[in-house]
Amino acid sequence: SNPGPGIGGQYGRYMPDAEQDPAATARLLRRRVETGSIELRVSGSSMSGVIESGSTVVVEAAPVPRPGEIWVFTDDEGVIVVHRVRHVDEFHVIGRGTGNHVDDGPVPIENAVGRVRALTRPDGSPKRFGIIDRRAAQVSFKIRQMAVRVRRGRR
Question: Which residue has the higher pLDDT, 34 or 140?
Answer without folding.
Answer: 34
